[in-house]
Every structure is written in structure tokens, then in C-alpha cells.
From TrEMBL:
The keyword Ribosomal protein applies. It comes from the Eukaryota. Interacts with the 40S ribosomal subunit. Residues 111-182 form the SUI1 domain. Residues 67-102 are annotated as: Disordered. The keyword Cytoplasm applies. This is Translation machinery-associated protein 22. GO terms for molecular function: mRNA binding; translation initiation factor activity. Belongs to the DENR family. It comes from Dillenia turbinata. The SUI1 domain may be involved in RNA binding.
Length: 187
């Protein structure tokens, strides 16, 4: 004889009220994380790993504060801080790390030219970074507008820096014009 089917038991989040497996799509996933770690650790194993990593970081910070953290000797070996010869550890090169382990490079002044397509046919060419070379953006937009017989204006970009928007697809032609007009700018 066939077994009688059992009803499905659904675990609902105590914070947002959604089923636990849908909390990540809810409005307050950050608030739900502690509850999920305690009540449903098998649904989100990445949260458990992150929590363990944070605890390990806190422990290593406490060890560094007390002076028992390992210090690198430069040859790959390490000694604990109490056994060091009293010389301060060499300063590590200060580099800004971004999420995902990427390293942010020092910004070099450069001109960036982008083509943005709107309404499937119309294009806008944006020129960013001319002001880093001492070029007045108002004068540059006038010259670009005259050269290509199109509208050009100085606008604030998404990063709150000024850029030049030129109507039309002139991305390839504007490179030659900029290098001829202002030879010291790097594209």
C-alpha cells in the first residue's frame, strides 16, 4: 500500500515573514541574516562561512592588540610578536582593496571617450577627463560643436564630475581632433 503524503513544512522568517529560502529577495536581508544563521544555517552556507570569517578576523584583531599576532620576516616564515627582535615590522605598501579582492590602481590623468546609444538610433559621445589637463571644458565644448557641426555641452556626469556631451557618433573622429588640438592630453 502507498504511503500517505505528508504536508510540506515551510519555515517562515521571524524578521520579514517570507519563507526562509526567499529572504535574500526580500527588503531586509541584512536584518534577516542573524535570524537565518540561528534558525536555518543549512539554507545559506555562505552566511555561515562569512560569520566564521568575521569571528576569525575579530580574534586576530584581539591578538594583534595584545602583541601575539604573527609577524612576517620577509622570507615566508613567521614568528610571533613576543619573539621579535624589537625592530618594527616593515610598513606594508598601502593599497586600496575593492570587494572581490581587486586592487584599486592610482589614478593617472587620462581622457575617456564613450559612446552612449539612446532611442536605438541616436548617439551621444561623452568626453571625460579633459579638465585634468588644464583644458577649459566650456572652450572645448564650443570647439567640438563647431568642428562637428553638432550640439555640445558641459554636464555633470554620474560621478559628479564635469564631462562634455556631444550629440552624434563621433567617437573615432574626436580622438584625432583632441590629439591635434591639445597634444599633451593622453587618450
Amino acid at each position: 500500500m502507498a504511503e500517505k503524503p505528508e504536508p510540506v513544512r515551510v519555515l517562515y522568517c521571524g524578521v520579514c515573514g517570507l519563507p526562509a529560502e526567499y529572504c535574500e529577495f526580500g527588503p531586509d536581508f541584512e536584518k534577516c541574516k542573524p535570524w537565518l544563521l540561528q534558525h536555518a544555517p543549512d539554507l545559506y552556507p555562505d552566511l555561515v562561512k562569512d560569520a566564521n570569517a568575521k569571528e576569525a578576523d575579530k580574534l586576530s584583531d584581539k591578538l594583534k592588540a595584545t602583541g601575539f599576532a604573527p609577524v612576517s620576516t620577509g622570507d615566508g616564515a613567521s614568528t610571533d610578536g613576543a619573539a621579535s627582535s624589537g625592530a618594527p615590522a616593515s610598513k606594508e605598501e598601502e593599497v586600496k582593496r575593492l570587494p572581490g579582492g581587486k586592487i584599486k590602481k592610482k589614478e593617472k590623468p587620462e581622457v575617456i571617450i564613450e559612446k552612449v546609444v539612446r532611442n536605438r538610433r541616436k548617439c551621444i559621445t561623452t568626453v571625460k577627463g579633459l579638465d585634468l589637463f588644464g583644458i577649459k571644458l566650456g572652450d572645448a565644448s564650443k570647439k567640438l560643436g563647431k568642428k562637428f557641426a553638432t550640439g555640445a555641452s558641459v554636464v555633470k556626469g554620474p560621478t559628479e564630475k564635469d564631462q562634455i556631451d556631444v550629440q552624434g557618433d563621433i567617437a573615432y573622429d574626436v580622438v584625432e581632433f583632441i590629439t591635434d588640438t591639445w597634444p599633451d592630453s593622453r587618450l
